[in-house]
Amino acid sequence: MTALLRVESLTVAYGPVTAVRALDLAVGDGEIVALLGANGAGKTSTLRALSGLVRPVGGRIRFAGEDVTGLPPDALVGRGIVHVPEGRQVFGPLSVLENLELGGFTQRKDRAFLRETLAFVFELFPRLKERLHQPAGTLSGGEQQMLAIARGLMSRPRLLLLDEPSMGLAPIVVQDIFRTLRAINGRGTAILIVEQNAKAALALAHRAVVLELGEKVLEGPSEALASDPRVVDAYLAQA
Ligand code: ATP
After folding, report:
1. Given the CA of residue 46, which atom of ligand 1 is nearest to it?
2. How many CA atoms lie within 13 A of 172 on its CB side?
3. Which runs of E-coded beta strand occur in the chain?
4. Ligand 1 center–CA 183 separation, angstroms
5. In whole angstroms, what is the distance from residue 121 CA to residue 207 CA?
6. Residue 41 CB–ligand 1 contact under 6 Å
7. Which of 44, 110, 126, 147 matches a 20 to 30 Å C-alpha distance to 168?
8. Distance in angstroms (rounded) separating the CA atoms of residues 125 and 146
9. What domains can be seen in the chain, in order of their start residue?
10. Could you say which DSSP state residue 137 is in?
11. How far is the CA of 41 from the centre of ligand 1 (A)?
12. Per-residue pLDDT tens over the stretch 171-203
């Protein structure tokens, strides 16, 4: 498998607190990888390092054959890495369309690109097209999550980093969003997804990595992990 993303010995620390320790991780071109683990395991910190929001204190990040370690977020977006953070941080007073246009800011001058990308996004999220001029803050929680993902797609990323897209949403909405994530992946975007809902994440992902206290403790194809007693006991038993 050619790795689109290859992370070697990534270490992330906040002062004296080491959040991620010597993590090796790869995401193949067109692959979906789930990052699982309890609260505080270092999942969000991993995504923040990959999108340039925190500077790793150690290790190397290679993307599409290039060393991108320590690059700032805008440079990483330009190379095709987009982070959709937890908590669907849409701009509430702005309309759906304005939020989407902000996501496409890197190609803002190219109107044709923007139009094409909007059409692509509306095909994936028809509900957003119906609410184009509605303030984002008045959308339902599920629609705001869809908008957050759609905004991320506006720069046509090669790798989408998703943090807890199911957070606080009803099961039927989660199903809808996960179906759309599969469709996004089907159109060629690789996905690294952090999820508390391990069952849904393992059903979606090709492979999964389990973190505990900042370190990788398990890794493998999703089907194998979904029946691994260590994963079942810790993450699936009560689901
Ligand atoms: P959660 O699901 O709760 O978000 P997580 O697996 O994403 O957990 P992180 O948020 O990456 O874990 O946190 C890993 C560790 O780093 C935790 O011990 C956390 O307290 C610590 N941490 C995270 N952000 C900061 C920060 N800005 N300053 C100091 N410590 C932090």
Report:
1. 11
2. 0
3. 3-14, 17-28, 32-36, 58-63, 66-67, 81-84, 159-163, 190-194, 207-212, 215-221
4. 30
5. 26
6. yes
7. 126
8. 7
9. 3-197+215-236 (3.40.50.300)
10. G
11. 7
12. 999 999 999 999 999 999 999 999 988 999 999
